[in-house]
Amino acid sequence: MTLPRRGLLFGFLATLTVGLPALGADKDPLRILIIDGQNNHNWVSMTPILREALEKTGRFSVDVATSPPKGSEAAQWDQFSPLFSKYDVVMSNYNGERWPSRVEKAFETYVAAGGGLVNVHAANNAFEGWPEFNKMIGLGWRDNKFGDRVTIDDSGKVVRTPKGEGPGAGHGPQHRYKVTTRESSHPVTQGIPAEWLHAKDELYQGQRGPAENMEILATAFASKEYDGSGTNEPMIWVIPYGKGRVFTTVMGHTSNDETVAVRCIGFQTVLARGAEWAATGKVTLPIPANFPTATQESVVKEPAKTQ
Ligand code: ZN
Question: Which of 52, 75, 196, 213 is the most exposed place for a label (fewest CB within 10 A)?
Fold first, then answer.
């Protein structure tokens, strides 16, 4: 029976803070829902790292909705009913089967009405046959007949390659690579170094889709040395969907024994800022002093192994 006591304590604290500036007034935690449960990546180890990256900013309260595993019966899917409208932003760490149509419809309605969406890495591999999702992500892991490709040439010009021409989705061997900021006036990337060294990761190239109203915030050069396309591939971009804001990063590969890409402080900082922006349209989260430089990567320590 602790409720009455907590009530008293709250009243007491409220009395104490009267007259002080309302520091937290516009900084109530943003409610974020991470969706996982199916992925060709190790979502079981990845979601806690994403969660920690968000929680340590003090800006988010994080919930996780885990879908039924692949091949589940309809009765199990009936239990999967994320209450999107309860959240300021949804983060997808999901790459698997289509959701029940009632969930997909609720998701479309949520984003169109102003909900935020953040897609991480293979999240843009999902749902090839879902047209509204393709509009939200702009570019997905699809073959070259699916849609256009968008890259940035050496002069900084956006190049659109029509469907059927050029490479489809792929990546070469993982390596450290430099990320180039392309839009320094966007809230997410304002103040982020012009170039920063990302920890070892896959470098997605040849992504395809409708790519409408896409604003590319950062690219990486896909070097031929690593079987790359030889041009600047979009790494981070944003797209409006109705009244909603969608942020996508294709960085963040995670395998059973490799989590360094999602432990990169550059990745984590941009991810949290992207989530804040998708939720509110603004960014208040600072860029940490240990953000990677153009020549020095910066990663948080590996989580302790649970026995
Ligand atoms: Zn991957």
Answer: 75
In three-state secondary structure terms, 182 is coil
CATH fold for the domain made of 4-280:
Rossmann fold (3.40.50)
CA of 202 to the centre of ligand 1 (A): 6
Vertex 217: Cα angle to 167 and 120 (nearest 5): 70
Which residues of the chain register pLDDT less than 50? 1-25, 307
CA of 204 to the centre of ligand 1 (A): 9
SS3 label, residue 62: strand
**pLDDT of the residue at 27:** 73
Rounded to the nearest whole angstrom, what is the distance from the C-alpha of residue 41 to the centroid of ligand 1?
Answer: 6
pTM of the entire predicted model: 0.90
Per residue in 191-214, pLDDT tens?
Answer: 999 999 999 999 999 999 999 999
What is the pLDDT, as a whole number, of residue 278? 98
Q: What is the DSSP letter of 217?
A: E
Kindly give the distance from the C-alpha atom of residue 203 to the centroid of ligand 1, in angstroms, as a whole number.
Answer: 9
- Give how far Cα 174 sits from Cα of 75, 84, 260, Å: 40, 34, 11
Interval between CA 42 and ligand 1 midpoint (Å): 9
Write down the domain spans for the chain. 4-280
Question: Which residue shows structure tokens 């984590």?
Answer: 268
The Å distance, Cα 147 to ligand 1 centre, comes to 21
Vertex 276, ends 274 and 277: CA angle to 5°?
A: 65
pLDDT score at 229: 97
Q: What is the pLDDT of residue 145?
A: 98
Residue 259 Cα to ligand 1 midpoint, Å, equals: 11
What separation in Å is there between the alpha carbon of 18 and the centre of ligand 1?
A: 51
For residue 160, report the distance from its CA to the centre of ligand 1, in Å: 24
